[in-house]
Amino acid sequence: MGTARNPIPEGEVRKQSNGVSVVNSRLGYANLGLGVGLRTVHFDHILKHEPAVDWFEIISENFMDSWGRPRYVLEQIAERYPVVMHGVSLSIGSTEPLDFDYLKKLKDLARDVGALWISDHVCWTGVAGTNTHDLLPLPYNEESLRHVTERIRFVQDFLERPLILENPSSYVTFAASTMSEAEFIARLADDANCGLLVDVNNVYVSARNHDFDPVEYIRSMPFERIVQMHLAGHSNCGTHLIDTHDGPVINPVWNLFQLTHGLTAGVSTLLEWDARIPEFPVVHQEVLKAKQVLAQTLDNRFVLPAEDIRSNNSTTVPHPALYVAAQTD
Length: 329
Hints:
This protein is an alpha/beta fold. Helix content is 37%, strand content 18%. The strands form four sheets. The protein has an eight-stranded parallel barrel, surrounded by four helices. Strands 1-2 form a two-stranded antiparallel sheet. Strand 1 (14-17) and strand 2 form a beta hairpin. Helix 5 (142-159) crosses helix 6.
């Protein structure tokens, strides 16, 4: 999986800058607290009630080409709350040339709304000019590592800021992989000098689907490069899990959040809810559960109970290596 890393000592990495708690080792980015994803169904509620949310994350592509009401609402919200951008179409792992038109729109949007950082996923999303609108997995090997590292460096130079990349949820693996996802992402962050967004729900989903230890995965991350965390719900299909973002966070994922928070000394944390979206107060209350979770004692001897790594469903999850040829031929 990778080498376990030492946790960041909380007392040594924080300083006060204009009243905001800043972690020196997070590429200079602040811990914004607890945020939620900005969704159109909540526009009216947010504008009317100005809820006590620490910050919002937007899906970049939803606003890059929009100059109507969505962009107007975003500008209003950006005047009142910190905003960060999260993309789904950068396709950093693709062999297609980088899309300069896309990158320019991304950079312009970040400037216009004062986005504190820009994130996307360790994946590819299309080929031959076609966007699949899905986050497709990579083979994890030295060739892929060099390729993606070079592309990240170029994108960061173009955007004139660090890129923050998220671990994907995945459902197949590749025979060509020579290292684990955790090792690949850790080396990628170091080689490309970029930041990381650790989605603890994705870690749990992929751990179930591919039969690896989610605690070992978290412990092998370069904590000093983690800028943000994601929380979300998922769907249990018996033989596998799907990252659907359509419900509350389950207890095993909260446990992984608690572990990651302790090892990183705390980073900006956001709840994603993208399907069957409830009223805003329900979404907000879900992310506020993080405060209850963090009130529990956590130390370096934290071990996720075995029953929490697996669901209560007794169905054995097939190892993806058994199906890799059929899935990727």
